[in-house]
Amino acid sequence: MAMGCMAADIDGSWTASAEGPNGQVTREFHFKADGAKLTGKTVSSFAGESVIENGKIDGDKVSFTIKMKLQDNEMTVNYTGTVKSASELRLAAEFVGADIKMDWNAKRK
Hints:
mainly beta; 0% helix
């Protein structure tokens, strides 16, 4: 079987950082893969805990959505990314309805 067809090993906890509109932010991701399905949760100090929804794994590519509350407003954030290695994950986040995009670099805990 070719490596590109296998689901990436993303299970476990990851710590990520990104440059946000107000400086550097961090977030923890806790992933659980089941074949091509990705579930779990994510936690940040500024937005609390969010459940991973619509998670998919396709080879080394991942995608999922979270809903989070910021100042009493619920926002949907779409994530897409690539598992670069067993310990490195790159994610791009796009806030639906807002002109905010963030690039996350994650390391396995």
